[in-house]
Each structure stands twice: as C-alpha cells, then as structure tokens.
Design goal:
Strand order of the largest sheet: 3-2-1-6-7-12-13
Helix content: 40-55%
Mean pLDDT: 96
Low-confidence stretches: none
Shape: globular
Number of strands: 13
Order of helices and strands: EHEHEHEEHEHEHEHEHEHHHEHEEHH
Radius of gyration: 22 Å
Structural class: alpha/beta
Bound molecules: 6-O-phosphono-beta-D-fructofuranose
Number of helices: 14
Strand content: 15-25%
Length: about 375
C-alpha cells in the first residue's frame, strides 16, 4: 500500500531545512514510491489546510537554499491565535490529518516543535520529527542541523570584529543567538578566540569580565572581544528570573498562570537590553570605549554549510526508512555517522543545556578565556 506523508516546518527557520525536505521527498518519492504533500507555515498552515505539492520539480534545486520553501511559523496547535482569540485547534489538525489520508506527519523543528509534535502523537497521529535549530538545544541528538552554518557565520563575525576592536583599542561585545542555551556563543567564541564568553548556563559577574579585560590591557592588549549569548544573565539577575520561571511552571489555576506569565514577560523584557547594558558597564569599569554588534538573524539566513546539508539529507532519508517500517512517535536523531529513532516523549519538554563540565567549557578555560564566573 502506498504511504502518504505530510511534511511541515515549524519554529524559527534555519539553514538545512530545504535540504531535509529534499532528503525526505527524494527518498519517499523516488526510492520508496510514497506520496508526499507539504503544509505551509507550520501548524497554522496545517490547520488552515494550506498545502504545497512537493513533486520532483519542487524538490529540485533547493538543497543549497537557506530558509524553508514551505514557510514556517511559531504557532502551536493548542494555543493558536485565531480572530483575536487564542484557541486550541488540535481537533481541526486531527481532522485535516485524516482528510488528507496521511499515514504520517513529518515535523521539522526545534524544542518547541518537538513538544507540539508529541502532543499530536498523544492524540493518536503518527508523527516523526527531525531536529533543526541553530541553537543546538534539542536533546538526545549529537547535533541539530542549522547549527554548523550559524557557527561559521558567528565565528566569522568574531574574526572580523577583532581587527576593528584592535585598531580602535575598544571592547566589542558581540551578541550571538541563544536565548536559553549557549552552544552557539561558546562554539563561536572558542573558534573565533573571544576573550570572554558569556552563556546562559554560567551566570556572570561583570567585575570578573572587567578584570579579565583590564589584565589584557596591562599586558599591552588594549582591546577585547566579548561573545555574549542573547540569554546570558548576570549573577544578580538570575534568582529573580528563575523564580519567575518557576512560578509559571508551578501555576495550577488559569489566573495564577496569567499572573506568573505576566511577571515572567516583565523580567524577560528587562533582560532584553542586557547586551547594551553590559557594554556600558564594561566601558565604565575598564576605561576602554565599548561597542556592541548584535548578529541577530544573519545567523539564521543563507546557504547551509556542507555539514548541515549532509546531516539534513541523512536525517531526511533515515526518516523515510522509519516510515517504510511503520516506526512512528519518534525523532530521527544524529548518532555519530548513524541515526537513531528516539521516542518523542523522551525529547519533548527538555532542552540540551551546556553542562558546566562539558569539554568545550574546559577548553575555553584552558586557553584563558573568561567565562564570567
Ligand atoms: O531559532 C532559535 C532562535 O534563533 C533563538 O536563538 C532566538 O532567541 C530565537 O530564535 C528568535 O527567533 P524569532 O525572533 O524568530 O522568534
């Protein structure tokens, strides 16, 4: 019996999504003789039944393209803004799945998508996910596609900022994506030779960072590069933020949840200008002029690296092998040169943080990089 596959991309985009769509598509159509249909803009497009035909022509020439030909959104089935209200559209999604006679829905996404996909699996849909994100924070996979490309972009930025920081005897604070986790800032900081690297997992003391910069100045190096993850947090702010996050997690009633979320939003809004504040503090403490560069969406756009194309293609084709065996409710994880099907319930609602004893952390310390602690 021919199998019918639906596919969507959800959450923030990243390089390698098209390579993965192509990997799933080419193997499904050409190797296994399955049928494939794309859904636009993540779960919103699925709910609204907006489809895209994915035939050989559509799948051709997309391997090297950044972004996703399907479009994406951060919408969640159980909390979808519709007509000015936020409603649960899971039933509509379940109906659409059956209307299209799907055997499986393949969801390409990061941490949020794994959670949403698992919810749909709990509603009885056959789901397979692939792990994508420049943040590299999906657990139980060696790596996510998108990360390698973003790592190169961020590293090149740190390289380029060195010469201008050196010429002007300045501190340049470069903000690298990573709201909850610091893999990208840590990796690019090490690869680019940043003098300080600040990540969410290691709350920092600004005095420590200033000490490191002053000590460089004393040795005649009157410039410094500080790589800071967007979610890096000062020691004095960490308790309040964690308490607010804890309240949201523990809220039992709707009212408690609304008030806890409002408090958390406020804390996060205060945190939004953190990198600018940090640069000002460092300028004051060291006497060196400071500048900020926020890399932002540059890190998510553009052509995927060879490693990301290879990984996305491997995971995409492995996904069709699982479909051919009827193995559902799993994420296709990268394990060395191989892949592994890991149950969605083991992946959903968890993030892969940088462990304090990780070898990258030790490496940074060994080469004298200040981690702010
Ligand atoms: O893709 C993950 C990520 O890059 C985070 O590092 C960042 O905080 C977030 O996306 C921002 O994306 P958006 O503005 O698209 O929600």
């Amino acid at each position: 019996m021919t199998k019918y596959i639906g596919i969507l991309t959800s959450g923030g985009d990243c390089p390698g999504l098209n390579a993965a769509i192509r990997g799933v598509g080419k193997a499904a159509l050409g190797f296994y003789g399955m049928q494939l249909i794309g859904f636009r803009d993540g779960f919103r497009g699925f709910m609204e039944n907006r489809t895209m035909e994915l035939d050989g022509d559509m799948l051709s020439g997309i391997l090297t393209q950044g972004g996703t030909i399907l479009g994406t959104s951060r919408d969640k089935p159980h909390r979808m803004p519709v007509g000015g209200k936020v409603i649960d559209v899971t039933d509509v999604i379940v109906d659409n799945y059956h209307t299209h006679h799907l055997d499986v829905l393949v969801c390409l996404g990061g941490g949020g998508t794994q959670k949403n996909a698992y919810r749909l699996a709990q509603r009885g849909l056959n789901i397979i996910t692939l792990p994508k994100t420049i943040d590299n924070d999906v657990i139980l996979t060696d790596v996510t596609f998108g990360f390698d490309t973003a790592l190169s972009v961020a590293t090149e930025a740190v390289d380029r900022l060195h010469s201008t920081a050196h010429s002007h005897h300045r501190i340049i604070v470069v903000e690298i994506m990573g709201n909850k986790v610091g893999w990208l800032a840590l990796g690019a900081g090490i690869a680019g030779g940043a003098d300080a690297i600040l990540i969410p997992e290691i709350p920092y003391d600004v005095e420590r960072v200033a000490d490191a910069i002053r000590s460089r100045s004393h040795k005649g190096k009157r410039f410094s590069l500080v790589a800071v993850a967007e979610g890096a947090i000062a020691k004095q702010d960490v308790l309040a933020l964690r308490a607010a996050e804890g309240k949201v997690a523990k809220a039992k009633t709707r009212a408690a949840q609304v008030s806890a979320e409002a408090e958390l939003d406020q804390r996060e809004a205060q945190h939004a200008g953190n990198t600018m504040r940090l640069a000002k503090q460092l300028e004051k403490l060291t006497g060196l002029e400071s500048r900020v560069t926020i890399l932002g969406y540059l890190q998510r756009g553009g052509t995927p690296s060879a490693a990301d194309r290879l990984l996305a293609t491997r995971l995409g084709t492995a996904c069709t092998d699982l479909i051919s065996k009827g193995r559902y409710g799993v994420m296709v994880a990268a394990r060395g040169d191989d892949t592994k099907a890991v149950p969605l319930e083991d992946v959903a609602r968890k993030l892969k943080f940088v462990p304090p004893d990780h070898s990258w952390v030790a490496t940074a310390r060994r080469v004298g990089t200040c981690l702010g602690d």
